[in-house]
Specification:
about 375 residues; alpha+beta; Rossmann fold; OB fold (Dihydrolipoamide Acetyltransferase, E2P); 2 domains; 6-stranded mixed beta sheet; 5-stranded antiparallel beta sheet; about 25% helix; elongated
Length: about 375
């Protein structure tokens, strides 16, 4: 593998189970050392995709290339892939050290080398001195570290993680997320991570591939997906979103700063940004306008924005660093705000005038 060869390339990968298409033409390229997350709801195809990469399932169509080599006829144990399962999949009758040593023994590594590698990787995951314990003698977090150590002990080209933190409590999950990300950076190991938790994806990933109905709906850096979702599904799945529905009017401005004027169902007008290169939006199109809860600002005397609404605070919820306000709008509908808790606290019944620029709102097709 040369320095510029992608660690993983999927080309038109499909998988069917009877009449059901679980993965429907997925294309994905993962760079060496990158941390990519497959994010989506249950049934979106993310775990099926991971299992095809690992070799536990065979694709019906398309190609899977790891380090430049086609994997279609390569069995799992020859794919140079480490995998961590949601249930850890540790062998219960074997010690932590023996579990970690297993993939090395399967590869015919000499016993002295195995002992040194196991000792080294136990230290790497913070489990020095725990090697002789059986899985049942370890906590959930410790078992997770053993599973991770087993997956990386043979220096795989690719590390696959299938919702590995699902069984952990919130505090331990956050700790393990930080440890896995730190370890991945230190080792420079290419990682593909599966989760349905969008907060987890935002914390860990270099890029996120949002999956829906067996397809990648959008892929990009976390901030790009959050600020510029390409569809209503992505807008609603990645973070909290306020949606307004309307019909596209005049589209103005040069790329990449094009804007569209939209007439809402209420009869009001708003203006929003279009994603660079998005030619799907046309005059009369049924649109969803997306604005994130932190973007609207309270208007003060004399201030004006391209988009303005007024309403009354219906609910205020303290969330630590922020307060979430649910505001009932004049003319119907509502908008959710998430503002810093350090500022002025608003009580239910408070009337607000809000505004935001077109650059803070994205227009996508409603469908």
């Amino acid at each position: 593998m040369t320095a510029d060869t992608p660690a993983l390339v999927l080309g038109g990968v499909r998988k069917r189970f009877g009449e059901f298409t679980a993965v429907d033409g997925v294309d994905l390229e993962v760079r060496r050392g990158e941390f990519i997350t497959l994010l989506g709801p249950s049934g979106s195809g993310k775990t099926t995709t991971l299992r095809m990469i690992a070799g536990f399932l065979t694709q019906d169509e398309g190609s899977i290339r790891i380090a430049g080599e086609e994997m279609t006829r390569v069995p799992p144990y020859r794919r140079d892939v480490g995998m961590v399962f949601q249930n850890y999949a540790l062998l219960p009758h074997m010690s932590a050290a023996a579990n970690i040593a297993f993939p090395l023994a399967m590869r015919g590594i000499q016993r002295d080398s195995i002992r040194d590698k196991v000792s080294s990787v136990l230290a790497l995951v913070g489990l020095s001195g725990y090697g002789e314990r059986l899985p049942r003698q370890l906590s959930g977090g410790q078992q997770q570290r053993v599973a991770l150590a087993r997956a990386i002990v043979f220096d795989p080209t690719l590390l696959l993680l299938d919702e590995p933190f699902g069984a952990l409590d919130r505090k331990l999950r956050a700790q393990m997320q930080a440890e896995v990300k730190s370890l991945q950076r230190r080792l420079g190991i290419t990682t593909l991570f599966v989760t349905h938790d969008q907060e987890e994806a935002l914390v860990l990933s270099d890029r996120i591939a949002v999956m829906n109905a067996g397809r990648i709906a959008q892929i990009g850096a976390a901030e790009h997906l959050y600020r510029r979702p390409a569809s209503r599904f992505v807008a609603e799945f990645v973070g909290e979103a306020n949606l307004f529905r309307g019909r596209a009017g005049v589209i103005a401005g040069p790329a990449p700063a094009r804007t569209v004027e939209v007439k809402l169902e209420s009869g009001a007008a708003m203006r929003a940004s279009l994603a660079p290169g998005d030619r799907a939006v046309h005059y009369g199109a049924d649109l969803a306008l997306v604005v994130r809860p932190e973007r609207p600002r309270r208007l003060i005397a004399g201030a004006a924005f391209e988009n303005q609404v007024a309403g009354t605070v219906a609910e205020a919820t303290y969330l630590g660093e922020t307060v979430r306000y649910r505001v009932t709008l004049e003319g119907g509908g509502e908008i959710v705000l998430r503002w810093p808790a350090e500022g002025e606290r608003l009580s239910p019944g408070t009337r607000l005038e809000l505004g935001w620029p077109a650059s803070d709102m994205t227009a996508v097709l409603w469908a």
